Amino acid sequence: TVSVTINGTSYDVPKNYTMLEAARAQGIFVPTLCYHPRIKPLGRCKACVVDMEDGNLSMACSSKVADGMSFRTDTPRVKAKAAAVFRELKAKTMPVVPPRRLDLSEFENTFDAVTACDVDTNGMIMVDPSMCVDCGRCEAACSKIQEMGILETTASGVRPHGGLRLDETRCIGCGQCSSFCPTGAISEVSHIERLYTAIAEGKTIVAQTAPAVRVAIGEECGVAAGEVSTGKMVAALKALGCNYVVDTDFTADLTIMEEGTELIGRMQKKWAAAPEQAEKMGPMFTSCCPAWINNIETRFPDYLDNLSTARSPMMMMGSVVKTYFAKKMGIKPEDIFHFAVMPCTAKKGEIDRMQMVTGGMKVVDAVLTTRELGKLIRKHHIDFPALPNQEFDSPIGSSTGAAVLFGTTGGVMEAALRTAYEILAGKPLGTLSYTPARGLDGIKEASVEIPLKDGPTKTLRIAIASGISNANVMMPEIAAGKRNYDFVEVMACPGGCISGGGQPKSLDPKIIEKRQSAIYSDDEKAKLRKSHENPEIQQIYKEFFGEPNSHKAHELLHTTYAD
Ligand code: HC1
Ligand code: SF4
User: Fold this and answer.
1) What's the pTM value of the predicted model, to 2 decimals?
2) Given the CA of residue 403, which atom of ligand 1 is nearest to it?
């Protein structure tokens, strides 16, 4: 530690702290705008200036502390500087006030209104330069974290680079930009109005909720970060008018059955092939992250045949709700409005993919982000912390610990291994918590030795990439033969869905770790922790699908890709 004096009082602080971190650690307020704990300081807005002992002003966000340093945050000229920054900001955002009051974000379908205020959209995110305060956070999230370089901040606000419209760029819809934006200049395309319309039309409302929503929705409604709010989330959705609330975790278990069977089939072929031929087959990639699908389709189309054909759990649930569930409940599929609550903005695009039309039907009618659900809960004055816990609706509401793991990087891999290993080896994987798949590293890899129950021991080479920049590093190296894998999980957001672009905005530097720990504890507490042990999964195969990868399963639970 080093000793620094702030506003006349001495404190011991870690020596790698910035002045901003040192002040905030003591509860001393320093205003900021462009600063975000997960982005390297941008030093753009200058709202955080402090008065140094030598008479100079210094930006607290980007200057490190030093032993014996003294600075003040409370002098008239510091306050004047911050006031000037915020006066300028107010002047810039004044024209924004009328659309803000009207809350146009909920009327994205009224295209005239949208174009009238120069909003650009690709159906996943919306960019409104008039609300931009030029902080540069979205640009940094897109260029520095995701390394996509889609956005630029100009004097007239944020826009896609090169004068393009969003849908002319290779934006994958990950939404990281929107979760770093402090004003809403970049936001998800809202589907709230679709829900209100369906309620008004008297439709049967069926909601599904993604694994990562339960560990983050509380942050939007007065519950501490890192707490699991599954039961309250279900209760809130019922209070908002949902007739049924079912669990995307159920279809995460179903995904493991379908994708696991596909992997086993693929590996049996690969292991039987001559080594050179086997290497040419390349790895199988997971297919549940829609931003990853958008990325592979536009950047690495040679690998489309390597993508698992399994639809994402969200889309599988859509098919199940409008067939199996509708029949069981005696409801006509066309009378159902089915929406998903997702931590993701790209999911809003996934529901409109033409490859997902099933029996002439769109199976998921809308996607609300965790933030949008939070907004609804607050708007309807629901006292979230006081809600009683409610259960998901049967017979598509039960799930295992393996399913909730989908919400974090490495989770699909861990869940798949628990099932695939047991099927191939005829005995359980030694440890349920598979350490090489855990944590937040951008690329994780391991070799799993599988003693086949009817043959020799084989090796499954696995890799896990989270954050699209890591996938984009990995792909050319796979193509060049520098990385050889059998099964690769990719999630486009750093850390996986827990830090999806539709999750609550947070200035807590440890937020991803907190949500990840919540996912791991939810798995540990689960009575059943392997997808194939879920009794409702066994039941749906018995009653409806027959067996994994059956003809019916292919029709309803698998897909193709655009090349
Ligand atoms: Fe995800 Fe998935 S885990 S993609 O990260 O496979 O969004 O949470 O719902 O579909 O299950 C997101 C999360 C989510 C799907 C599942
Ligand atoms: Fe960049 Fe993702 Fe935002 Fe698109 S959605 S602009 S890729 S951060």
Assistant:
1) 0.92
2) 11
Residue owning the nearest CA to atom 1 of ligand 2:
142
Looking from the CA of residue 124, the nearest atom of ligand 2 is: 5
Give the position, in ligand 2's atom list, of the atom nearest the Cα of 170.
7
Distance, CA of 39 to CA of 174 (rounded, Å): 17
176 lines ligand 2 (CB under 6 A): yes
pLDDT at residue 117, rounded to an integer: 56
Spatial neighbors of 94 by CB under 8 A, at least 6 apart, are: none
Q: How far is the CA of 288 from the centre of ligand 1 (A)?
A: 7
Tokens of 96: 């924004």
Phi, psi of 311 (to 5 degrees): -65, 160
Ligand nearest to the CA of 124: 2
Separation of CA 250 and ligand 1 centre (Å): 11
> Residue 301, preceding bond cis, omega within 30 degrees?
no
Angle at 496 between CA 506 and CA 289, to 5 degrees: 125
- Closest atom, ligand 2, to C-alpha of 492: 2
pLDDT digits (tens, 9 = 90+) for 69-126: 999 999 999 999 988 888 887 777 655 444 444 444 444 444 333 444 578 999 999 9
Question: How far, in Å, from the CA of 47 to the mean position of ligand 2?
Answer: 26
DSSP state at residue 550: -
> Quick one: pLDDT at residue 104?
45
Beta bridge partner(s), residue 366: 339
Cβ-Cβ contacts under 8 Å for 174 (sequence gap 6 or more): 146, 148, 291, 345, 346, 468, 492, 493, 500, 501
> Rounded to the nearest whole angstrom, what is the distance from the C-alpha of residue 314 to the centroid of ligand 1?
7
Q: Are 278 and 270 in contact (CB under 8 A)?
A: yes
Close Cβ partners of 232 (under 8 Å, ≥ 6 residues apart): 218, 223, 384, 385, 387, 388, 389
d(CA 512, CA 519): 11
> Dmax over Cα atoms in the chain, in whole Å?
79
Among positive and negative, which fits the CA dihedral 316, 321, 325, 330? negative
- Closest ligand to 254 CA? 1
Among 124, 344, 372, say which to mutate for ligand 1: greatest number of ligand atoms within 8 Å of CB: 344
**Ligand 1 close to Cβ of residue 283 (< 6 A):** no
Per-residue pLDDT tens digits for 175-232:
999 999 999 999 999 999 999 999 999 999 999 999 999 999 999 999 999 999 999 9
Any residues with CB less than 8 A from the CB of 430 and at least 6 apart, and which?
none
Instruction: Look up residue 108 and give its two tokens.
Output: 């994205």
User: Which of 421, 442, 440 minimizes the C-alpha distance to 430?
Assistant: 421
Q: DSSP H helical segments within 282-429, as ranges?
A: 290-299, 313-320, 326-329, 347-350, 370-379, 401-404, 411-425
φ/ψ of 323, rounded to 5, equals -125, -85
Ligand 1 closest atom vs CA 346: 7
For residue 189, give the ligand nearest its CA.
Answer: 2
- Neighbour order of strands in the sheet with 120-121: 120-121, 125-127, 186-188
Q: What is the dihedral of CA 218, 224, 225, 229, to 10 degrees?
A: -40
Task: Look up residue 394 and give its DSSP letter.
Answer: T
